[in-house]
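ERR on first pass: missing label on line 2. Operator R.T. fixed the label and resubmitted. Corrected input:
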Amino acid sequence: MKKYIKSVVALTAICAVVAILLAAANSITKPIIDKNEAAAANEALLVVMPNGGDFTTVDLSAYELPASVNEVYAASNGGHVMKLTVNGFNPGMVIMCGVGADGTVTGATCLSSGETLGHEKVYGDKTVGATVDTVDSIDTVAGATKTTAAYKSAVKDALNAAIILGGGSVELRTEAEILADNLAAALPAADGFTSVFMIDTIEGVDSVYSANNGTGYVVCVGDSFVATDANGKVISEGASTEEKAAATSAVATLLSWELTAIDLSTYADMPSAITAAYSTSSGNYVFDVKASGYGISGDKYTASGEYIYIKVSVTADGKIITCETVSQKESDGFGSACADASFYTQFNGKTAETYKDIDAIAGATITTNGYTTAISRVFEAVNILKGEA
Amino acid sequence: MKKQSNWSILFKGILLENPVFVLILGTCPTLATSTSVIGALGMGLAAAAVLICSNVIISLLRKVIPDEVRIPCYIVVIAGFVTLVEMFMHAFLPDMYDMLGVYLALITVNCIILGRAEMFAGKNTVGKSALDGIGMGIGFTLALLAMATIREVLGSGTFAGIPVPFLYDNPISVMKEAPGGMMVYGILIAVVNKLTNGKLIKKKSFGCEGCPSAGICSKGTCENTAKEEG
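pass 2 clean. output:
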């Protein structure tokens, strides 16, 4: 018994002494550690707002800010520092942007990104002094337009957020609205636009829109919108020589596109999801595909309801060029998001190995699964047409 | 036990009984923190500080601590010192603190420290235990530095952050990774073996007291040692 008591007493005594020593050490080091951490956090904010003084975190629940704004710090000089996340060439570019009390950018820096060229590390310097009126006129960097355009949009969001935080209001426009405005500004004679389904990649061109009334095309070269007439002659005067050349050749290319229908009945193994197939003059394929999602059937949505109709162009070696949802009758607000460009354009550039690597539609697992299954049929179909399956 | 001179206690940790290359203790922190020379130096010195302090305190308390609870007592003492080092490093050397990360806290369960507490400090005087701590601490730090020098120079093309010509542009990335660490570790063990002509510590010089199972073993002599000698 005595032995046990001795063990307990010895261990307890040692623990007590150690605890007292640690408490004493903690009282010495804790204030220093707190001061260091606050200084480190402040230092990061001071990079984008050198005269910011001290910063306090702003509770964002009371404001409706642009979606890219994650965190806001209020500086003692009346300015704000925002932490924003935007998608550049790759998703997840985190930018810290300071906006002074007078509504000008005091500095911007990229905290982390998956970008390839490193322009995001220095581009922030170009935005210093910009206001909400002048931010659009900052040049993007040729060869890194996606990165720098995303950077610019982040800075613009920060400027808008500063206005909202200051009690003002700004019109927050959706990407689709901004696109529609840009297209209309490029080709005023048009009465609405339709995205041209790209059956082949065109060097230097992201996308092409055709005017619904046949007055011409708008070619997106980097972040410029170049308008042409129906024959491909450039109308936009502000475009650079390279942009004009790219737009002319793009329209010429798409006017030369020819589709040859493939008789599917000669391929016994062709998946039933493939409703039509075409070959292009450049050796690519275009497929009309139907996908089983969670479509309407009578007056309710079920897994055996209406199909989603998809159009996919794919290279002969199995890389998707363009994927587009043609029509769908999925549950409104959930599966219906499969008609959003932000969803279906995720498949662009994907292969049989990578097509599952996409962000699913939130709350619509069945729709997402049905859609990706239909995409997998495209790769099977390509192999069958090539005689490899 | 054979009587050891103070000098031999101090110096044995550096080569003849080097904790890393001869006793093969502390492999985890050795592999994890030997990718950069600065990190290795920090880790080595932090572990050495804990080792010296815990050896002294455990030696002081060796007659007070009951045998049954000696391991928990050792761990409390060691953990206390590690936490002290951690707190002061966080306050005064925050960059080093961030670099060492979780491995700093893991010094608590570094088997070199517990091993020396159990094998040496629990049975020897305060002075000798302090010398043992200093020797083993220097041995651990030097071993880490040797590994880190090779791995950083070849793997990152830098030495303590200073670029090394040619290698900086042509680093051998595998040296920074676990396989490179294992390779360097194995080669250095072989080199130390060669340097000492194989006259390293033998199993019998550990004796029964060096055996991890000594506390629960009821046999008078070690079967393994007896067999080898027989």
